[in-house]
Design goal:
Layout: H1 7-20, H2 25-45, H3 49-60, H4 65-77, H5 85-97, H6 101-113, H7 121-133, H8 137-149, H9 157-168, H10 173-185, H11 193-205, H12 209-221, H13 229-241, H14 245-257, H15 265-276, H16 281-293, H17 301-312, H18 317-329, H19 337-348, H20 353-365, H21 373-385, H22 391-399, H23 404-421
C-alpha cells in the first residue's frame, strides 16, 4: 500500500510538538508553529521547495495566515507544486481575510491582473487599500496608480499623490519617481521643481531607470537644480545603460554637441544605433543622415540607405526625402530616377520643402517623369515659400521658359497644395 505524501515529516512534526507540551501548552504550541515557520522560510530561501511546502502546508492548514500567504506565492510561481492561480487565490483569500497585509496585496494583484479570478479593478482597489492602510509600500503605490488612472475608483490625483508619498517615504523607488512627476507637472500637488528633482534623485540613486532619465532632463534644463550638462550626461548614461531609449538618444546628442562631455561622434553613433535598433523611426533617420554625410564617422552610403529605408517604412517624410536622394544619385543603391520621384513625392505631399524642391528639379529635367514645367514650377514654388535654399533661383530660371498661362496654372496648383497642407 502506497504511503500518503508527506506522511512521515508531518507525523514527526506532530510528535515533536507533543513532546514539547506542558502546562504552558498554548505558548509552546505557538513556539512550535513558529519553529516550523522558521524552518519553512529557511528551506524556501535555499530553494528547497519540497521541505518549504511541507512546513507551510502544515501551518496553513492550522490557519496560520503567514503560511497561507507563502503557500499562495508558491502556487503562483509554481515552486515545488504545479503552477496554479486557483490554488494561489484560495490561500491568499484565506490569509487576507485574517488581515495578513501581504496576502491582501497579493489578492489585489490577482484581481487587477485577472489571474485565477475574473478581472476586477474595484476588487483590486479594495484589497490594495486594506494592505496600504497596513503600510505595505507596494500596495500604497498600486493604490496611487489606480486613483491616478481612475481604475476601479473615481480618478483623484490628490489622493493618488497622498498614497505615492506614503510609499515613497518608505523608499519605494517607483513611488518616488511618480511623486516627482506629479510635482513637475503640478498634478495632485502644487508645482515644485525643487521637490520634483529631490524625489527623482532618491529614485535614481536606487537605480530606477526612468528617474535617472528624468533627473538627466532636470539637469539639462536646470529645473529645480543648477543647470549642469556634466550631471545631465551622468544620469543619461546610467539610464541609457539600462535601455531607456530617450536617454540613449539624449546621450548621443550630448556627444554630438560636446555638451558635458568631449565631442565624440563614435560614441554618439553607438548610442544612436542602440536606440534605432529598437525601431525608433526618427533616430533611424538621424543615423542614416550621419552615415550619408560622414559626420564624425566614415561615410557609408550603404548604411545610410539601410537606416533611411527603415525610417521611411515607418512613414517618416524626411526619410522618404533622404532615400530619394540616394536613389537619384545612385549612392549606396542602384540609381533609379523613378524610385527617387516616388519617394520625393511622398515627402513633398507631406510638406517637406527639400522633397518639394527635389521633385521640382526632377520635373524640370524630366528624370523619372515626363518633363513638365508646370509641375516643376508648382513644387519649386512651394519649396521657395519655405525658404528652401536654391529653390527661388531655380523657380525664376524655370519661369523664364514658361508662358504666362503656364505660370498662372502652376501658381493655382501651388495655391491648392498650400491650402491642403495648411500652410
Amino acid at each position: 500500500m502506497n504511503k500518503p505524501a508527506f506522511a512521515f515529516p508531518l507525523w514527526r512534526k506532530i510528535l515533536r510538538c507533543i513532546a514539547m507540551a506542558s502546562g504552558l501548552f498554548a505558548l509552546l504550541a505557538g513556539s512550535c508553529a513558529w519553529a516550523g515557520m522558521d524552518e519553512g522560510v529557511q528551506a524556501y530561501a535555499k530553494k528547497d521547495y519540497a521541505n518549504a511546502l511541507i512546513e507551510f502546508t502544515f501551518l496553513a492548514e492550522q490557519g496560520n495566515a503567514v503560511a497561507q500567504n507563502k503557500l499562495g506565492v508558491m502556487h503562483t510561481n509554481g515552486e515545488g507544486v504545479p503552477k496554479s492561480f486557483a490554488e494561489a487565490l484560495k490561500w491568499f483569500r484565506l490569509a487576507a481575510k485574517q488581515g495578513d497585509a501581504k496576502a491582501q496585496f497579493n489578492l489585489g494583484l490577482m484581481y487587477a491582473q485577472g489571474d485565477g479570478v475574473g478581472q476586477s479593478n474595484a476588487e483590486a482597489v479594495k484589497w490594495y487599500k486594506l494592505a496600504a492602510e497596513q503600510g505595505v509600500a507596494q500596495a500604497q503605490f498600486n493604490l496611487g496608480l489606480m486613483l491616478e488612472r481612475g481604475r476601479g475608483v473615481a480618478p483623484n490625483s490628490v489622493e493618488a499623490a497622498k498614497w505615492y508619498r506614503l510609499s515613497a517615504q518608505q523608499g519605494y523607488p517607483q513611488a518616488q519617481f511618480k511623486l516627482g512627476v506629479m510635482y513637475a507637472q503640478g498634478d495632485g500637488v502644487r508645482p515644485d521643481d525643487v521637490a520634483a528633482a529631490q524625489w527623482f534623485r532618491l529614485a535614481a540613486d536606487q537605480g530606477y531607470a526612468s528617474a535617472q532619465a528624468n533627473l538627466g532632463n532636470v539637469y539639462f534644463l536646470g529645473r529645480g537644480v543648477t543647470q549642469n550638462d556634466a550631471e545631465a550626461v551622468k544620469w543619461y548614461k546610467l539610464a541609457a545603460e539600462q535601455g531607456v531609449i530617450d536617454s540613449q538618444s539624449d546621450l548621443a546628442y550630448m556627444y554630438i554637441d560636446g555638451r558635458g562631455v568631449a565631442q565624440n561622434y563614435a560614441e554618439a553613433v553607438k548610442w544612436l544605433r542602440l536606440a534605432a535598433e529598437k525601431g525608433v523611426a526618427d533616430l533611424q533617420f538621424n543615423l542614416g543622415l550621419i552615415y550619408a554625410q560622414g559626420e564624425g564617422v566614415p561615410q557609408d552610403n550603404a548604411e545610410a540607405v539601410k537606416w533611411f529605408r527603415l525610417a521611411a517604412a515607418q512613414q517618416i517624410p524626411a526619410a522618404h526625402t533622404g532615400l530619394g536622394v540616394m536613389y537619384a544619385r545612385g549612392d549606396g543603391v542602384a540609381q533609379n530616377y523613378v524610385e527617387a520621384v516616388k519617394l520625393f513625392r511622398l515627402g513633398a505631399e507631406q510638406g517637406v520643402p527639400q522633397a518639394q524642391a527635389n521633385l521640382g528639379v526632377m520635373y524640370a529635367r524630366g528624370r523619372g517623369v515626363p518633363q513638365d514645367d508646370v509641375e516643376a514650377y508648382k513644387w519649386l514654388s512651394l519649396a521657395a515659400a519655405h525658404g528652401e535654399a536654391g529653390a527661388k533661383d531655380l523657380l525664376e530660371k524655370r519661369a523664364s521658359h514658361m508662358t504666362q498661362n503656364q505660370i498662372a496654372k502652376a501658381q493655382g496648383a501651388a495655391r491648392f497644395w498650400r491650402e491642403r497642407l495648411g500652410r
